[in-house]
Amino acid sequence: MAKIKGLEGLTDNDINRELERGAKFVYYQYTISILIMTFRRSSSTYFIKGGESTVAKGLGFSLITFLLGWWGIPWGPIYSIGSLFNNFTGGKDVTAAIVASFASAEPVPDVR
């Protein structure tokens, strides 16, 4: 099971309370290009508490993409735009899948 960042020190009750306040589980994308090779990857999953900015948490991944993503032809610009769009809209929300996996007490599925 992949480690979810942001859950350290939280009990199940804390997590449920935060989810009621609007918390989300999200991941971000980043793109790195090297001439003719372009790699689009996903970050770890992050638990973003209610009231915290999902966009701010993804700024590092956006910076990586902005600096290193454009240089591969033809996919560098295409994947970079997609990664930046994903990150600046708050990341990919996978809350429903994570909560469902917690409820079923099975390992977290790979939602990417």
Plain-language structure description:
By secondary structure, this protein is α+β, with helices and mostly antiparallel strands. It has a domain at 12-49 and 68-103. The protein is 42% helix and 19% strand. It is built from 5 helices and 5 strands, in the order H-E-E-E-E-H-H-H-E-H. The strands form 2 sheets. The protein has a 3-stranded antiparallel beta sheet with strand order 4-1-5. It has a two-stranded antiparallel ribbon with strand order 2-3. Helix 3 (59-68) runs antiparallel to helix 4. The longest helix has 14 residues, at 75-88. The protein is elongated.
Overall average pLDDT? 91
Percentage of residues in helical conformation: 40-55%
User: What class would the helix/strand composition place it in?
Assistant: alpha+beta
Tell me the fraction of residues in β-strands, as a range.
15-25%
Read across the widest sheet, the strand sequence of neighbours is 4-1-5
Q: What's the shape?
A: elongated
Distance between the termini: 13 Å
Order of helices and strands: HEEEEHHHEH
- By DSSP (H or I, 4+ residues per run), the number of helices equals 5
Contiguous uncertain segments of 5+ residues? none
Work out the radius of gyration. 15 Å
Main sheet, how many strands, which sense, barrel? 3 strands, antiparallel
Number of extended strands: 5
